[in-house]
Amino acid sequence: MDSYLNTIFNEDAVDGFKRIPDASVDLIIADPPYSLGKDYGNESDKLKASDYLLWMERWIDSALPKLKPNGCLYIFLTWRFSPEIFVMLKQRMQMMNEIIWDRRVPSMGGSVRSFTSVHDTIGFFVNGKGYYFDLDAVRIPYDAETKKARSRSIFVGAKWLEIGYNPKDLWSVSRIHKCDPERADHPTQKPLEIIDRMINASCPPDGIVLDPFMGSGTTAVSARRCGRNFVGFELNPDYCAISEQRLASSEAQLMPKKNQPTEPVRGKNQSKQKLLEF
Ligand SMILES: C[S@@+](CC[C@H](N)C(=O)[O-])C[C@H]1O[C@@H](n2cnc3c(N)ncnc32)[C@H](O)[C@@H]1O
To answer: What is the pTM of this model?
Structure first.
């Protein structure tokens, strides 16, 4: 197996992309800073708008050559900058969906001069017509009530009723609350349920998922539990340590099914021998 696979490197993503051969990655899942001023233990979320857009363009142009010709990209954004970034990406790829992630935030007062924002915007882009998309892997089963309502003879045995429906472009998945068992110590951790859906739909089994901004390692955990490989980058060493812990406990849960060892999180200058194995 290639030495960079199943590894999170504690380094800047644009530097790190050089480790990865061109046209080798099946799927990029990117959850970059949104330019909201959040504290990731670095200044990455504190760029002013014009610098932020330049930086986004820079890493996108360094990442896209890594994708295979039939590769896909999901990118998490906020409504503040998704228009500019979608225009930029549409000059480079084909846009398939704008997915709205409804974070299911309860009403808590919120804004008084505008409507309260409770969603993230996700762009789904593909490299070309032959892109990988496994709808059957992500279908949602119909509930018993719907099936019963479709019990007229014309529906009996209908394949679509048995195999479930195509998820819509509104994904209503609760954000990870402080007391959620999935919760890690990261301010913008994404739910595994969302990343699992992206990987199962858009990366073939045993394929490679690249996440330039690993944060707490959600993409890495999801890739392993879905039977895919990952590679990723994260500036903050504390988040790398969190990813390492999450991967270890997820691997322990998967142990009976496990057939491939997972590489540990590695700092820029660490040799492989010094690292903890999962
Ligand atoms: C929105 S968070 C990602 C959260 C992640 N999806 C999760 O579920 O935990 C963005 C992360 O990107 C990291 N980051 C920012 N700039 C970076 C860069 N140039 N290279 C690598 N990581 C970076 C930040 O430290 C932060 O943890």
So the answer is: 0.91
